[in-house]
Design goal:
The chain is mostly helical. It has helices at residues 9-28, 34-41, 45-48, 50-61, 63-73, 75-94, 99-127, 132-162, 167-170, 172-186, 201-219, 221-224, 229-249, 265-295, 300-306, 308-327, 331-348, 357-384, 392-422, 428-456, and strands at 2-3, 477-478.
Length: 482
């Protein structure tokens, strides 16, 4: 059987948190640098967005495969391999001389993140037994994850303005080095199981292709629109592949994703909730950043600095949520957090073309970020409640997939609505109207997330996970006592 021995929980938490920080950082760190990248490498205008999209495409598309690989081949091994690939591709991206080289490097970063992210969450789930200590560990992980996304805007702005765009890639290298140094210091190695299941190759191809096409179809709506035949055919192909995947998973002996896992209200509810929360959060980042730059006329570095209160609010929210969830169920934090985030975004929707940072950004940033922190911290605990250790990687991959898809689909949908409101106008007033509408709709998404938490998540922690009938008796993992 897999055995977790000689592990040091504090080191495991540090390694997982550092890795998640750099994965989240790269979701936003290049955004502010895009104009400099375009002029330096000669990107065509329509190709430039792929510097951002290809990372989301490969990261989201391979997460379930990465999570299952953690369960089969070892969390520590996949964690280290994912980080090494991520670091090498960060180095290559900073050295890129042609557009295709940077896009290929960003795709490689996504692949590395798809292995490291579910491995990090699985290491925490197995190392810290279910209860207050796991809640606190996942609270730290969630706070670092949220802070990485928010600080990416700050880092991208400062690095681009003062060091050059290549440093938005190279900044990952010391962070990856720290995470890798922590692996031998206290992350336990698992012994190989006496009987290892085969990887569900057909399921892996179907789900990776299906999620990849779904992300591709959604991100291309930026240029093609939702009604284009190419969009609908891509999304239809994604739906077919995912439907066939669901059918195949009920027929194979060792599925990539055991569908019985979704019978847990904790798992299903948490994944729906994180999908919605990510849609609202990613949208807020996008519209508020554009508002500050294109309506208020703030520079890249100033915009990054203006996100600091948002980062602090996220950390404060996760601290409060961790204490609440340690004593009660995740619902106690998820419901008020989602409603508070909705209130903050509704406040954001009152932005004015004649406003400023102090009057239109600071207050709503603090309210929204504290609410988002109250949601993001306990949702990871909810998504792993009642999950057997041998499926920790799968659960981690599933939750990260839901987060990626939620952010991608939500942002594309709300950005389309905002663009429709703006029309062909380019003045600050018209742009302000579009951004305000997008932020108001994001508030509605968080209200829906609160409704899901109330309706789906159990009121108590008591769970009865569906048995895995096909699992061999020797294929269980044992976590280190925490």
């Amino acid at each position: 059987m897999y055995r977790n021995s000689r592990g040091r929980p504090g080191v495991v938490l540090a390694a997982a948190a550092v890795a998640q920080f750099v994965v989240a950082l790269d979701m936003s760190v290049v955004n502010v640098a895009l104009p400099s990248i375009r002029s330096s490498l000669g990107f065509a205008p329509l190709d430039l967005s792929w510097v951002v999209h290809v990372y989301a495409l490969t990261f989201g598309g391979f997460l379930l495969l990465g999570g299952r690989a953690c369960d089969l081949y070892g969390r520590r091994r996949m964690f280290a391999l994912g980080l090494i690939l991520f670091g090498l591709c960060s180095l290559a991206g900073g050295l890129a001389q042609e557009p295709w080289q940077l896009i290929a490097a960003r795709a490689g970063q996504g692949l590395g993140a798809a292995a490291a992210a579910p491995a990090a969450l699985a290491m925490l789930t197995v190392t810290f037994v279910e209860g207050p200590r796991r809640v606190r560990a996942l609270g730290v992980w969630s706070a670092v994850n949220a802070a990485g996304g928010a600080l990416g805007v700050l880092a991208g702005g400062l690095l681009t303005e003062h060091a050059g765009w290549r440093w938005v890639m190279w900044v990952n290298l010391p962070v990856v080095a720290v995470a890798l140094a922590l692996v031998p210091a206290g992350v336990p190695a698992e012994t190989s199981p006496a009987r290892r299941e085969r990887l569900d190759a057909l399921g892996a191809v179907l789900v990776t292709g299906g999620i990849g096409l779904l992300v591709l179809g959604v991100v291309r709506t930026e240029t093609l629109g939702w009604t284009a035949p190419t969009t609908w055919s891509t999304l239809a192909a994604a739906a077919v592949l995912l439907a066939v995947f669901a059918y195949v998973e009920t027929r194979v002996a060792a599925p990539l994703l055991r569908l019985g896992l979704l019978r847990s209200r904790w798992v299903t509810g948490a994944n729906v909730l994180v999908f919605l929360a990510a849609a609202g959060q990613f949208t807020a980042f996008y519209f508020v950043s554009l508002y500050m730059q294109q309506v208020l006329g703030m520079g890249a570095a100033a915009t990054g600095i203006a996100f600091l209160p948002f980062s602090l609010g996220l950390v404060a929210g996760t601290v409060v949520a961790t204490r609440l969830t340690a004593r009660r169920t995740p619902r106690a934090s998820l419901v008020p957090g989602a409603l508070l985030a909705a209130g903050g975004l509704a406040w954001f929707a009152l932005i004015s073309p004649d406003g400023g940072f102090l009057t239109d950004v600071l207050g709503p940033s603090l309210v929204t970020s504290v609410g988002a922190g109250l949601v993001l911290a306990p949702v990871a605990a909810a998504a792993t409640t009642g999950v057997a250790p041998h499926e920790a990687g799968t659960a981690g991959g599933l939750m990260n997939s839901s987060r990626q898809l939620g952010g991608c689909v939500g942002l594309a949908a709300l950005a389309t609505v905002a663009a429709h409101r703006t029309g062909t106008a380019t003045g600050p007033a018209a742009l302000n109207d579009g951004y305000a509408l997008g932020l108001a709709l994001a508030a509605g998404v968080f209200v829906l997330a609160a409704a899901v938490a109330v309706a789906v998540l159990p009121r108590t922690r008591t769970t009865t996970p569906a048995p895995r009938l096909t699992a061999p008796a020797d294929n269980r993992l044992e976590g280190t006592p925490s």
